[in-house]
Amino acid sequence: MEFTCKAFSDRTYKILFEWGGLRRLRAILESEKLNGPYFIITDKNVYKSQHRNLDDALQGADFCYHIVPPGENSKSFKEWRRIQNFLLERGADRRAVVIAFGGGVIGDLAGFSASTYMRGLNLVQIPTTLLSQSDSSIGAKVAINHPEAKNMIGSFYQPRLVISDPSLLQTLPAREFSAGLGEAIKYGVIADPEILEMLRYNIEHVRSFNQEYVTWLISRCIPIKIRVVEEDERETGLRKILNFGHTIGHALEQATGYQLLRHGEAVAWGMLAAGWLAIRRNMWNADEFEKLKLIIVRSGALYPLGALKSRDVIDALKHDKKKTGKSLNFVLPEATGKVTIVRDVPQDEVRAAVGYILKFRH
Amino acid sequence: MEFTCKAFSDRTYKILFEWGGLRRLRAILESEKLNGPYFIITDKNVYKSQHRNLDDALQGADFCYHIVPPGENSKSFKEWRRIQNFLLERGADRRAVVIAFGGGVIGDLAGFSASTYMRGLNLVQIPTTLLSQSDSSIGAKVAINHPEAKNMIGSFYQPRLVISDPSLLQTLPAREFSAGLGEAIKYGVIADPEILEMLRYNIEHVRSFNQEYVTWLISRCIPIKIRVVEEDERETGLRKILNFGHTIGHALEQATGYQLLRHGEAVAWGMLAAGWLAIRRNMWNADEFEKLKLIIVRSGALYPLGALKSRDVIDALKHDKKKTGKSLNFVLPEATGKVTIVRDVPQDEVRAAVGYILKFRH
User: pTM to 2 decimals?
Assistant: First the structure.
């Protein structure tokens, strides 16, 4: 399947979604005049489980690896600077192609590195997780974290190409896969009730990696993401709907030092909180929320929050990028498949929503 | 005078060039819906000599200063991170307006900071030097330096507005002013022989800050810069002509640790080297080169190179961003007002050109 994402006039890029696509990598790159050298940024886990496939695909080409530790903590100033040094030492010039080979963390880190080296190198995303294939590899957002706030340092930077090969997901650890379901469920709530219908009846098939269901699911998320970011690349309006579940989700990640939760898990918790807020405000149907809850629970994405304190979550919300002035904005469902932005949610309501998820038992 | 620079569709910005324009700052900002808060990045020298004017212009508005040491060494990872912390501590959100108040260094540093904070804050350039008013504040290039290579870390990031008030140049130290003439002379060579004609007969008036000549000179450079960057914002073709004098210029800056020379001074030396190469290659008229030499000498921009060694300059050339593969590209004049890109200039010719300027006496 081939999609196109129209960014600013000269920055349109293709998204190739193809079972086994990685094997055709060299031909695909060359057809886009991306002849290398290739600088592959990946993490230790992905390198271990997947590098042979990539080595084979790039056989004979000029390529090298830079391997970072797995996990959100690699989206740091330190790892970013190491990549700059790596590129400089290896003599990367404007012909260089940076390949982000991994999940959302690698896409963000390698993307921000490519965007800031020599004012921008060619970037190719090869997402290797469910979350990055269905969501984060598309849309040009790249970033690293400030010690005090996630994704605070970043830019909008279009890749030249995204190559999504779902066969890579076969070796994904179960927890990682479930976390990715968090963002996929989000696409159901914000834009496509059929995604939720499918998951309601088949989530076990998806979780046991039935090729047909997994492929259907990703191929359904990609065009939603494309449509939203095409209409609003810089997040001045529509794109904000993608933040459903992210206001409290980001705060959970930050309050737990980016160590406890995967991003998709935090979003899963954040969707519960947002759904609860919508019900409390009589904006949405309670039965629909019950259905959503069941899907989220069965996705396996609700990783236990441990001894997390409400106050720490509330504190973390203070640095939210999406706030304007002093009020917090929330994306809340008004129907299944349709969300709206609610401004100025009072502190005590936010606190109650956080209380709801901290007490949530399933 | 009002100019418009058309960047990608949604990123067009105005350049206001106006004697005394700073006094109207608040009204100008508000007419562009840039209502603040304002985060002003400046250096110690500019702060000392100019902050009262800016304080007056912003009276009653919400603004604060972040002051960095003067000089190229402030374009560092460290100062960039300090600005990120400053913005975060002060609670900058997406309404924030970063004002770059200073010369090229401040424009680059504040611009890169604005471009990378929350994936991009509003940026206003208020250039306070001849170089930044006639050249660097326009064109969206922002960057910091890697310890081993100038401007290696950066991006293309359009300001929302540029406000150039030549009255600010009255307090500029003579050396800074002469350095700025380096880039102005460049515009003569690459695009506008009348600039060189004017300077040939009136450079003393310009250097003694005759309001009429200075205003004419800047107003002549701005539209050239706009025209070039509009046609080729990302420097894939035409924009490269702006690098006349910059190949060896950058190497001189790097070989002297960014301490000895102002950027415009390095460019002045670099233009001598490039002119010499053009003559040696029979590309350009020797009389024209003599005229150019005289203007450069009389501009005061040829700050002595001291004990600089040829080998250090050659080493520094290895990290040039403009190289593709192993060859060095030079921008060389083929007529006064017209330059072309010459690829693959052999090492020994480059060495000879460096030797020429190291031995140059005036």
Answer: 0.90
